[in-house]
Design goal:
Blueprint lengths: L3 H18 L3 H12 L4 H8 L5 H37 L20 H15 L3 E2 L5 E3 H4 L19 E2 L11 E3 L5 H9 L4 E10 L11 E11 L4 H16 L5 E6 L4 E11 L2 E11 L1 H6 L8 E7 L1 H9 L6 H4 L2 H4 L4
Parallel strand pairs: 1-5
Antiparallel strand pairs: 2-4, 3-4, 5-6, 6-10, 7-8, 8-9, 9-10
The chain binds 3,4-dihydroxyphenylalanine.
Length: 338
């Protein structure tokens, strides 16, 4: 029969070998229960020391206590080793370069944004600045300073969302959602001296029933050039150039007379597109009343202005047949543009 002190030493060696094989925290815990737990092998050996004959107790007890202290120390060391290895693995070491990549969903620009940026780039190259203005606008800028006084029949051209803010003493409306970007003509002329060459992209609103060609919210890009000696020939050359850069170098362009209160003469410009003439913008020479309202002397300064709808142009370019698609937020539509 093995002496009790030798038994403790054998148990110790067996436990140390097992500890070396334990590689994960869960295995360490099983090991601890097996040897050092309440009914573990070493605990049992320690307990049995009491049953030994007195002359054997001292040596056996010392051996068992020594083994216990050693195993507890080795357990703590082993735990620290395993935790350090795991921590290292969780870093760069855990990267599996053989795994296939996860596809990153790719964002797209809205078709209105695409077309507006194209238009802006063309006018920027021609020396125009880009300005922006408020969508909540005063009647004064949206109408009055543009030669559309109260009760002028031309107000019927613009179905207006009036706002309750700042009602006049007689109850009349003074603020609105701008019906076009033209009020920025008045704001810019009022704020700075000629020469002016600027385009103004932005959102506009009309109180209208919507259908395939009408939407109550849409974009416009306004243009304005004012200086001494600006002529209708300048208007034509800039807009010809724009049309050819936008739609191709062979694009044919047609001007016809049209009426807008803030220009005289006024025109609309059409381009030939797949055999049809399609109107893409309104334009004209800035009306003397508009120059005067902004504080310019029409005997000294002249200018031209134009306004176009990027959604209309996007519909042409991309063959979109319903303007409501631009605001419907249908991914099947939006994901087709880049
Ligand atoms: N503001 C006009 C509209 O919304 C478009 C327009 C026409 C703008 C002629 C202009 C212009 O600057 O000269 O229908």
């Amino acid at each position: 029969m093995t002496a009790p002190a030798d038994y403790a030493a054998a148990l110790r060696d067996e436990a140390l070998a097992a500890l070396d094989r334990a590689g994960v925290p869960g295995a360490l815990e099983s090991w601890r229960v097996e040897y050092l737990g309440r009914s573990g092998k070493l605990t049992a050996a320690l307990r049995s020391v009491a049953q030994l004959p007195p002359e054997e107790r001292r040596a056996a007890g010392a051996a068992a206590n020594e083994a216990k202290a050693l195993l507890e120390r080795r357990l703590a060391e082993r735990r620290a080793e395993i935790e350090a290895a795991l921590a290292q693995n969780a870093g760069a070491g855990a990267l599996d370069v053989t795994l296939p990549g996860r596809p990153v969903p790719e964002g797209r620009h809205h078709p209105s944004t695409i077309v507006m940026r194209e238009i802006q780039a063309i006018f920027r190259d021609m020396g125009f600045q880009i300005a922006e203005g408020p969508e909540v606008e005063w009647d004064k800028y949206n109408f009055e300073m543009l030669n559309i006084p109260q009760d002028h029949p031309a107000r019927d051209m613009f179905d207006t969302f009036w706002l309750d803010a700042n009602r006049a003493p007689d109850g009349g409306f003074t603020t609105l959602l701008r019906t076009h970007t033209s009020p920025m003509q008045a704001r810019i002329m009022e704020a700075q001296e000629p020469p002016i060459r600027v385009i103004i992209p932005g959102k506009c609103y009309r109180y209208e029933a919507t259908d395939a060609t009408h939407e109550s919210q849409f974009h416009q890009i306004e243009g304005l050039a004012v200086d001494k000696g600006v002529t209708f020939a300048n208007l034509k050359s800039v807009l010809y150039d724009f049309a050819r850069r936008m739609f191709g170098p062979d694009t044919r362009v047609r001007f016809r007379c049209d009426y807008f209160p803030f220009v005289e003469p006024g025109v609309d410009m059409a381009i030939e597109w797949r055999g049809d003439w399609l109107e893409i913008l309104g334009a004209g020479m800035v009306h003397p009343n508009v120059l005067r309202a902004a504080g310019y002397d029409p005997a000294v300064y002249s200018g031209f202005a134009f306004g176009m709808g990027p959604e209309r142009i996007a519909m042409l370019k991309y063959g979109v047949n319903d303007i409501r698609l631009f605001l419907a937020n249908d991914h099947r539509f939006l994901s087709q543009f880049r």
